[in-house]
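does this look right to u?? zinc ion version
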Amino acid sequence: MAHIIAPSLLSANFADLKSAVELVDGSPAPWLHLDVMDGVFVPNISFGFPVIKAIRPLTKKVFDVHLMIVDPDPYITAFRDAGADRLTVHYETCNHLHRTIQAIKAAGMKAGVAINPHTPVHLLADILADLDQVCLMSVNPGFGGQRFIPGTYRKLNALRELRNVHGSSLLIEVDGGVSEQNVADLAGHGADVLVAGNSVFNAPDPAAAIRTLSADI
Ligand code: DX5
Ligand code: ZN
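got this back:
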């Protein structure tokens, strides 16, 4: 399967989000990745409902919302109402992950779980069948523009095997440090979705960067 590029708005010019969304809208990238940070789970605060709601009318692209917040349960329907199509929560933030995943699906969204670089893939074995996507963090979450952690390749292999064992069709997403240097390797290792912030929005020509990253390997 050809991989999906999900440009991350976190690296866009926040003074001109409209242009950033329109750029993605006119690109081959089918998804837009939206990072919500609470300053508690991660040492940064990004944006929330009003921003997602404001940009929703600008594009029909899939809104892939990545929650880096503690206790996401009370906010699930609010993210749906703001325009999220897919909602990913962190394994490390949910005491009752099964309940949280069911609530996301009941709200009409696709459900994902993200795991930090230190969290082993096998911890997802008993929730895998319920998931639409798993996001492997290839940096420690909180900031764009960080260096890719190479151990992610091992986790990609392990997750692919686990997906086979469970006969699941979930999408495997890799988030952090994705660039023209590693995109082919990551797709070759079975990543279905590649999030790209810095390598898109800080490129001299972001539209060309999305085209290059999206090219078949
Ligand atoms: C990091 C975020 C990422 C970030 C990726 O916590 O989850 O989505 O935007 O940015 P780059 O591609 O610059 O590493
Ligand atoms: Zn993200």
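Residues 4-214 form a domain with the TIM Barrel fold (CATH 3.20.20.70). idk if thats expected tbh
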